[in-house]
Amino acid sequence: MSKLNFIAIDFETATQKRSSICEVGICVVRDSEIVETRSWLVQPEDNAYAYWNIQVHGIRPEDTATAPSFPDVWEEIAREYLEEFDTFVAHNAPFDRSCLERTAELYEIELGELKWDCSLKRARQIYNFESNSLASLCDQLQITRGTHHRAGDDAEMCARLYLREWADAPAKGGRR
User: Fold this and answer.
1) Angle at the Cα of 127 (from 125 to 129), degrees rounded to 5?
2) Is residue 8 a contact partner of residue 90, using CB atoms and an 8 Å limit?
3) pLDDT of residue 127
4) Confidence of residue 43 (pLDDT cuts 50, 70, 90)
5) Which residue among 14, 83, 151, 154 has its CA within the 20 to 30 Å range from the CA of 29?
6) Which spans in the chain are helix H?
7) What's the rounded Cα separation, in Å, for the pair 34 and 159?
8) What is the C-alpha to C-alpha distance for residues 6 and 82, in angstroms, rounded to an integer?
9) Does residue 145 sit in helix, strand or coil?
10) How confident is the model at residue 175 (pLDDT cuts 50, 70, 90)?
């Protein structure tokens, strides 16, 4: 297996709008080793939340009342990581990618060229489990779990799953 370099990323949203990011989590993988996991609470536009979103992740308006805005968080991520890493991995990448793109549009942020891969898509190619949710896959594969639906923990779970998928793909006949 070649050495993998990527950032697993996860977003939690405050409402049904993809541009309502209230938490960002990343897990940095260098040479197939997890080197860092971070998360930031983010104040979504107008600090508005929907009841159902709060029920999923537990983040409330008072938690993000003094949090930085997305442009500030993204500036830090870009400055610290994007010169070295250009590949994001997410579990259900179309969702996370659309969150990033919609939020970048809202705040007029130029994202540049980013590559994406999806641990959910890979799981469906490699494994034959009843459920392919991130938590279920981690349980089935005995991958250490954090608090599901908290962005930093989900990003690290995704990174661990993705590394496992690359290790398992040849043995399971999966495609790369």
Assistant:
1) 125
2) yes
3) 95
4) very high
5) 14
6) 51-57, 61-64, 70-81, 93-107, 119-126, 134-140, 151-172
7) 8
8) 10
9) coil
10) very low
